[in-house]
Every structure is written in C-alpha cells, then in structure tokens.
Amino acid sequence: MSSSNTVVAGARYLLETEKQGIPSKMPELPKMAEMEAKVAEDQKKHEMYNDQKSEEEEEEHEKEKEEYEKPEHEEHEKHHHHHEKEKHEHKKHECKHEKHEKHEEEHEEHEKHEEKEEHEEHEKHEEEHKEHEKHEEKEQPKKEEEKEHEYWKKPEEEQPKWPEFPKSEMPNFPGWPMANNNP
C-alpha cells in the first residue's frame, strides 16, 4: 500500500471516529495534513516530470522515426511505383496475349468453318456426280435401243448387207435349207 493511500485511510478513520463521538487518539493531525499535502505535491511534480519526459521522449522518438523512415519510405515508394508499373506492363502484355489467343481461336474457327463448307461442297458435288451417273446408267439402255431403232429406220441401201455366197460356195450344213445338198 502506498503512503498516500495510508494517509487517506487514516484520515477516513479519524473522520469516522469523530462522527461517532470518539475523541481522536492522534494529536498530530495537523502534521499529518501537512505531510499529506507534501506527498500530493511531490506526486504532482513527479507526474508532471514524467509527463514532460514522456512528451520529450515521444517527440524525439517521432523525429528519429521520421528521419529513419524518410529514406526508406521514399525507397519503398519508388519500389512500389516500379512494382505497380511492372504489374501494369504485365497486364498489358497479358491483354495483348489474350487478344492474340482470341484472334488465333477466331482464325481456327474460321478455318474449321471453311473446311466444313469445303467438305459439304465436296460431298454435294460427289452426290451430284452419283446422281448424274445413275441418270446416265438409266439413259444408257434407252440410247442403245434408240441406236437399234435408228438402224432399222435407215433405208435399205444404207444398211449393211450380208455377204452373198454363190450356191456352190455355200457351206454344207445338214438341215440347212440353203445348203448345196438341199434344193
């Protein structure tokens, strides 16, 4: 317990006892009041001294901190600015890269689309060719028939003739009506 607390406790005790009508057993009460005032004054001086010291120390500490941090702070700012610039450059580079990739993807899509169109066109052409061949196959017998009909439509003088053999040169096949042995 500090001395000031002891004095306060003693003073309270005396007040209590006087209120109850008990005479004070401490004749040096005025001396105690003086001491209490002196202790309070000393305590105030001590607090003022501590406050002043702590303010001075704090100011000194702030100055030191400013001096110490100033170059570092500037260096930090430079580094931060450089870092931000690098991030910005990197982001620009990424954007360019993304644009390039997007362009390549669009180009690939375009090529795929063209290949698909070419493939479809090729298949369509093949299908048309097959249809044409089928049509020609259907037309072929008709053309041959027409040729035969054309042959018979020709006048007799244009039609090729069978070679005529004299009767003496005719082959001799039994049962053949025009053979030599058959009249």
Automatic annotation (TrEMBL):
Residues 31-53, 62-77, 95-167 have a biased composition (Basic and acidic residues). Residues 1-183 are annotated as: Disordered. It comes from the Eukaryota. Residues 78-94 have a biased composition (Basic residues). This is Uncharacterized protein. The lineage of its organism: Eukaryota, Viridiplantae, Streptophyta, Embryophyta, Tracheophyta.
